[in-house]
């Protein structure tokens, strides 16, 4: 009798595991559902909108937002918030251009120095939050302001050096049969590396535990502060890479070109289903969040919607997704023990 009853039990177990996975992925499903709906609306509302190459080109042109959003997502998963992303992107633009001085031979040097500067800013953020116990909003806002003032003093409002021609040409470069933009490939590559760290390593498992319940993780022997610092360092590095990508795309350094990216990265992460409480959400949601913002903006611009109205629509979408995700997270926690 027991031998006959065993298979249904195993099948039920697999069914229960599938149900739990779907419950954990509801925020992702909603985010990607909205992104798909906007993609269809974009294809209908714009001439040639169904062409894969055009869609990939638009995503590639916004790769800098996607890369920066990866860092912001990691910080939010740790229970923090990074409001220094925009200034770090501007810093990377200023520093890399000053190092390159418009020469291809200095590209590697410029990129390395910019990434190191971004990582250093992230380290300061992490230490202030984890060691000095300053709230993330205040710590990163203060650090971002200091960074902003620093590069304004250094440049006197006029960035030095210049973007190397080789880096500028990368903005238009395409791979895989001249269809996929190179920056889109870089965005996906950064996502794969960070996803591997989060979901295929012990560091990632402990990181999620520290973000979801810092005290419980600490009582279990997890050095929570190390993971918090690591999250901010990773965010700084991602912001620096994003700043370099933005500089390559615009073709010139800027002290204010990335000012709007800080809040956009927060919006992308939240739309993607990441909770401000920490430990809830998936890195894949950041891609959906960026896609939603990009396609929504493109649609509104194609329809010649006034910029003020665009802000209203984007804000309404953000609030709507926050309410939906909050409800889904509440239901998920309510059914956890069932």
TrEMBL record:
It is found in: Cell membrane. The keyword Membrane applies. The chain crosses the membrane at residues 29-50, 107-129, 136-155, 175-199, 227-249, 261-280, 287-305, 311-329. It is a multi-pass membrane protein. Pfam families: BPD_transp_2 (PF02653). The keyword ATP-binding does not apply. Keywords: Cell membrane, Membrane, Transmembrane, Transmembrane helix. PANTHER family: ABC TRANSPORTER PERMEASE PROTEIN YPHD-RELATED-RELATED. This is ABC transporter permease. It comes from Conexibacter stalactiti.
């Amino acid at each position: 009798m027991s031998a006959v009853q065993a298979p249904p039990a195993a099948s039920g177990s697999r069914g229960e595991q599938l149900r739990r996975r779907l419950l954990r992925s509801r925020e992702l499903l909603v985010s990607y559902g909205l992104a798909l709906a906007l993609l269809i609306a974009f294809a209908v509302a714009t001439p040639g909108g169904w062409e894969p190459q055009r869609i990939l080109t638009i995503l590639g042109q916004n790769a800098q937002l996607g890369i920066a959003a990866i860092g912001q997502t990691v910080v939010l998963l740790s229970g923090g918030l990074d409001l220094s992303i925009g200034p770090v992107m501007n810093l990377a633009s200023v520093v890399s251009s000053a190092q390159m001085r418009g020469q291809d031979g200095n590209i590697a040097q410029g990129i390395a120095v910019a990434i190191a500067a971004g990582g250093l800013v992230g380290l300061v953020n992490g230490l202030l939050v984890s060691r000095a116990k300053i709230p993330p909003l205040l710590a990163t806002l203060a650090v971002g302001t200091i960074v902003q003032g620093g590069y304004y003093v250094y440049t006197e409002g006029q960035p030095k050096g210049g973007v190397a021609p080789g880096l500028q040409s990368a903005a238009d470069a395409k791979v895989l049969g001249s269809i996929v933009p190179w920056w889109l490939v870089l965005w996906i590559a950064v996502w794969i590396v960070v996803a591997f760290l989060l979901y295929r390593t012990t560091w990632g498992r402990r990181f999620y535990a520290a973000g979801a319940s810092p005290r419980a993780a600490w009582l279990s022997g997890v050095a929570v502060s190390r993971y918090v610092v690591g999250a901010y360092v990773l965010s700084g590095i991602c912001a620096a890479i994003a700043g370099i990508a933005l500089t390559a795309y615009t073709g010139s350094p800027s002290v204010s070109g990335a000012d709007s990216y800080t809040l956009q990265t927060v919006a992308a992460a939240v739309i993607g289903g990441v909770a401000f409480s920490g430990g809830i959400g998936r890195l894949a949601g950041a891609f959906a969040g960026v896609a939603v913002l990009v396609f929504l903006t493109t649609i509104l611009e194609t329809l010649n919607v006034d910029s003020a109205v665009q802000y209203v629509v984007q804000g309404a979408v953000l609030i709507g997704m926050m309410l939906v995700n909050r409800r889904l997270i509440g239901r998920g926690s309510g059914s956890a023990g069932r």
